[in-house]
Amino acid sequence: MSDTILITGAESGFGEEVAFGLAEAGHEVIATARTQDVADALQTKARLRRITLRSHKLNLRNATDIDALLPLDFGILVNNIARGEGGPISEIPLEILHSLFETNVFGPLALIQKVVRKWVAAGTRGKIVFVSSVASLEFPPVVAPYACSVHALEVISRALHHELKPFGIQIQTINPGPAVTRFNEGMIANAFSWFDDSRNFTKHASLRVEADAIADAEALPVDPDEMIRRMVEIIPARTGRYRNVYPEEMRKHVEISTTEAFDLEI
């Protein structure tokens, strides 16, 4: 079986650096980007850094793009596509939430269903890695819409772990803690994009207080470079934990947050 690694959402940020890191470590990598222009630019960046990898167009909301990937030979699929949206779940326009789930949940699942059908038919003992977030395991104010979508992926990944284990297909999640990245900064900024104090009962000032508290927390736990190094180690490994929360101290934080939910009163 080929252990070529296909990673989605590799056009920027963690996805791009993890794709480059895996290639530098000697792995065969197929890095996907949403448009052909961006996929070509990714290939150019790789050449400038003297990294060998393949790039491919993949818009997960386009069934033709998904079908075009299926003939490629890969044994590890890294689901790294994500879009961030913030704001109170009680007021977010539903069209934004629908679009968010299309990108973060339904698109990845459409690809996964077709890949695992191919693997099962061929007897391929593949591996799927979900790059998720600690936000999927607790309640983070301000970014609840994003957290809803990645929590859905947590349930999907757990179900896949149960359903596909008899076929020798491995499932794994990587759950980074908060870090100062363009993705996280953009997600918080998005929380204010549709706000209007004359219309919304949640007011701009109160949301800003919560957003600033999140931003302060982001300065603490995660070194992005160390997270990339850990992901490059975890993704190709054929042994290890199903769930990988990083940094380790975030695991206790998540456990406390989950336990507190049992004691909430209405």
Walk me through the topology.
Layout (H helix, E strand, L loop, with lengths): L4 E3 L5 H12 L4 E5 L2 H13 L5 E4 L5 H7 L6 E4 L14 H29 L4 E5 L12 H21 L5 E7 L5 H9 L13 H15 L5 H11 L8 E4 L1 H15 L4
Parallel strand pairs: 1-2, 1-4, 2-3, 4-5, 5-6, 6-7
Helix pairs in contact: 1-8, 4-5
What would you say this structure looks like, in words?
The chain has 266 residues and is an alpha/beta fold. The chain has a single domain, classed as NAD(P)-binding Rossmann-like Domain (Rossmann fold). 50% of the residues lie in helices and 12% in strands. The chain contains 9 helices and 7 strands; from the N terminus they run βαβαβαβαβαβαααβα. The chain has a 7-stranded parallel β-sheet, sandwiched between helices. β1, α1 and β2 form a beta-alpha-beta unit. It is globular and about 55 Å long. The mean pLDDT is 89.
Descriptors:
266 residues, 12% strand, Rossmann fold, globular, alpha/beta, 50% helix
In short:
The protein is of the alpha/beta class and 266 residues long. It has nine helices and seven strands, in the order E-H-E-H-E-H-E-H-E-H-E-H-H-H-E-H.
Would you state the CATH class?
Answer: Alpha Beta
Instruction: Point out poorly predicted stretches.
Output: none
Structural class from helices and strands? alpha/beta
Assembly context of the chains: single chain
Using the 3D structure, state the CATH architecture.
Answer: 3-Layer(aba) Sandwich
